[in-house]
Amino acid sequence: MAGGTERTAAPRDRFTRLGTSPVAAAVLTGTVALSMVLVAFGNITDFGTNQQFVQHVLAMDTTFKDPQLMWRAITSPALQNAAYLAIIVWEVLSAAVLVFATWLWAVGLRRNTLDRARRASSVGLVMVLLLFGAGFFGIGGEWFAMWQSSDWNGLDSALRYVVLAGFALVVVHLPAGARQAD
């Protein structure tokens, strides 16, 4: 069009837009959101399996049973179940925030308004980091010596979520970059 502006982006431009950091941030946020939805769904629909996990970790019954550490054990079923329910509630809240953030990315990419999406993603991703980093590494791994258990050790699984959420958080905060015409 001579003298005017083209209303729609050329197919090549639309395709190359998929390679921008905001699109990568949106996809990573959606990936973590999906993972958290499935984690929460699994813990709700298969309540007993991970309930046993939490009970054994808190009871410290499969650790080295060092007398200087065993005073930390929580053997009360009521407290164990309360801890497990708190984990599930945190997972559901994290998933909800991340699903909302993914929606904000989808809307923001079309309107070129990404600040709300970045902030919502940051909240959800930090929630995941708190759950798996502070909760599983710090509290479960160190305080309750989960690392000593060959049967009830969730540190490898938690590491995957920490790495994914941490990487997503970095990408979410990458600058969008200068837009240059070819």
Give the topology, please.
Blueprint: H1 11-17, H2 21-45, H3 47-59, H4 77-111, H5 115-143, H6 155-172
What can you see in these coordinates?
This protein is mainly α and 182 residues long. The protein has one domain. Helices cover 70% and strands 0% of the residues. It is built from 6 helices and no strands. It has helices at residues 11-17, 21-45, 47-59, 77-111, 115-143, 155-172. α2 runs antiparallel to α6 and α4 (77-111) packs antiparallel against α5 (115-143). The two termini are 17 Å apart. The mean pLDDT is 91.
Q: Count of DSSP helices? A: 6
Oligomer: single chain
Percent of sequence in beta strands: under 5%
Quick check: average pLDDT?
91
Low-confidence stretches: none
Can you tag this structure with a few keywords?
single chain; 182 residues; mainly alpha; 6 helices; elongated
Please summarize what this structure is:
The protein is an all-alpha fold and 182 residues long. The protein is 70% helix and 0% strand.
